[in-house]
Fold this protein.
Amino acid sequence: MTAELFSQYLFAGITYGIIYAIVAIGFNIIYNTTGIINFAQGEFVMLGGMIAISLNTIIPLVPAIALAVVITMIIGALIEIIFIRWLDNPSVLRMIIITIGLSILIREVALHIWGEGVRSLPYFNGNEISSIKILEAQISPQVLWVIGICGIMVTLLSIFFRFTSLGLDMRACSANRLAATLCGINARNMVTFSFMLSAGIGALAGCVMSPITYTQYDCGTGLAIKGFTVAVLGGLGNSMAAVAAGLLLGIIEAFSIGVVPLAFQDAISISILLIILFVRPNGLFGCNETANLKEF
Amino acid sequence: MTRRNYIPIMLFITAVIGIQLITKFTGTNYYLTQLTMTAYYSLVIIGLCLVMGYAGQISLGHAGFFAIGGYTSAALTTCNLTSLFKNGNSLVKFLSSQGMLIKSQDLYGDPVLYVNPWLAAILAIMLTVAIAFLIGIPVLKLKGHYLAMATLGFGIIIFRIVLATEIFGEADGISEVPGFTLIPGVSVNGNFDNRIINYYIACGIVVIGIILLLNLINSRVGRALRAIHGAEDAANAMGINTSRYKLYTFVISAVFAAVAGIFLTHYNGGIGPSEAGIMKSIRYVAIVAIGGMANMWGALTMGVILNFMSLRGMFGSYDDAVFGAILIIIMLFAPEGLLRLAIWQKFFKKNDSAQ
């Protein structure tokens, strides 16, 4: 493999990897505060992209994206308030089925609003053919936008969870909900907020990736499965490990293009998921003792 | 089988005959086609009901098993072996001498030699059992979200494989699958003349399936399964081999799905990749949930009603949306299933005391 091809694959892998990582962090945020996996996580990404595309026909790109993120956050909050907030200690099976139902509903609504067509936002800089030469590889400027914005998002999130009062409150809820409530934290609001946050980051990722990966009404399912693979790979609930796992999966996928037929691309990540689930269900970076204390 | 179980089975058989008579006298014979398909789908649903309701394990990959059955059987019965036979392939020669192959002619009068549907069905079921064992051993060690995702992943892999493999017809699926001659003169195929007999074959298979499952549920195995559903650790402590029971249940329900796949493929004369899709798996789960998880008759009733409405196109382009909405509403307001709502509870209690 030439150096040029190598770096070309590497950049493709990082681009997809960081998007998977964002979806995985979305899973983790909700999992940490509620203990449920939101199967509709991929739909937030799709909604973000679709809403921004529709808004961009009326208003310029940046406000369109900002507004799309806000709208998706509101949708996320509404979903939590309408479907989840008032349930008393629901079983895991029940939550799985409800979130799967939600993902189907969102997808079908999107199908009836936007149709089956493939859409995309315009490139933030230049167009389809403009490229920058980095490390011998020809990179579209949009790739740098994706890596940059997702990287900033990850950094901001880790600052948010470590140093802000709200972030600490959310972590307290995930550590021990009862104790957090006794300390005067409104745990229910934290859950709503976690849905808003993960909807927001999903939507922003959906917007920046839209020019290169395109947005279609059913693109959420594939992303959700890859995001979940990454979340499990890094250890469920561990957001920073998800970034490493995401990059790993993205790079594996990118380099496997030469070996595995394109039609089986999805099968690779799912096989990785199955193997990880069977061999190390607490993730590559997780530790056995903490995993045993969690409920799946 | 206890005497109590005979009553609903008799009721079901009466309903099957009654519906056929109604369609005969109202001149709506064409409903029977959808009812036959519905009956085959119901077979998947009662199988899944055993896994979800009684063993308490979710499976989001049952359309995969349906597709394994249907596709294996379809691929074997549409594969023309004439050239291999002429070249003197010893395996083909042997199968032919054992009467395992069927000779016929295609549209243009060329000879066609294909595997006997019986042999194809047996091979398909054996393949399903093997795959269900291989998948079930690791998957059933998982719980909750992980189990859901692993079975979903299995379903997607099967979907991708049929979509990308040439012998499975890729996106077009397999068509022109010959009929399945059960006994001379009685054949499972889509001919309009055979509509009534096919309807009874399908319902007969469902009745056999139900009797088998009810026997299982009311046996030692069934009690063990309910114990696993209630508290797996406690069941383990009582000396129940939980992992083995879970695995066997999973395999049995996979076989139910495969049998449904085989018969429906012969009945429709073809199978497409949408049968292996995720939405199909979710639909099966939805129907079991609506019927009330551990409620075989509830799942069967709801399965027949919803599948029939869906196949008649009553939901239009909102088909998937309707199933999604039903799934959410049932899980939010009636997690025990539609037939176990408080309103019905009173009615059932009265019945129980009467007995």
